[in-house]
Amino acid sequence: MAEYAFADSSFLVARFNVRDRDHRAAIAFVRDQKGAGPDAFRIVLSDYVFDEAVTALLVRSGRHDLASAAGQAILGSGNLRLVRVETPVFQAAWKLFVQRGDKRWSFTDCTSFVLMGNLGIRKALTFDANFRQAGFATFP
What we know:
Low-confidence stretches: none
Number of strands: 5
CATH topology: Rossmann fold
Structural class: alpha/beta
Largest sheet: 5 strands, parallel
Strand content: 15-25%
Helix content: 55-70%
């Protein structure tokens, strides 16, 4: 049975940007998962994370071709479920963002935390320590 994890933009950017400091770790994780079989791991990601990742790839690399190729690869993956941030999630994320002024959590991170909670996902593919602060297991 497949295990579910939520992909954060930090993982996606590292996966596709060879100049990212976490690129090797992201590639090694992807390679290890491919060796584990087709149903070993299912990835969930939000439209907000997709936007953040593609935009970060464009801004950091200055290469539209890299950003669009990464976006196509993400959207074309058969091992991925794209979830949209709808009004109830948006409102809950905004409430969390406002309440947790003691943290440096982005609004997109808050949408991810709410979605993960709603979907019962406890693991995140991320290099962002904020997910650990929010109580989720992180890897690679």
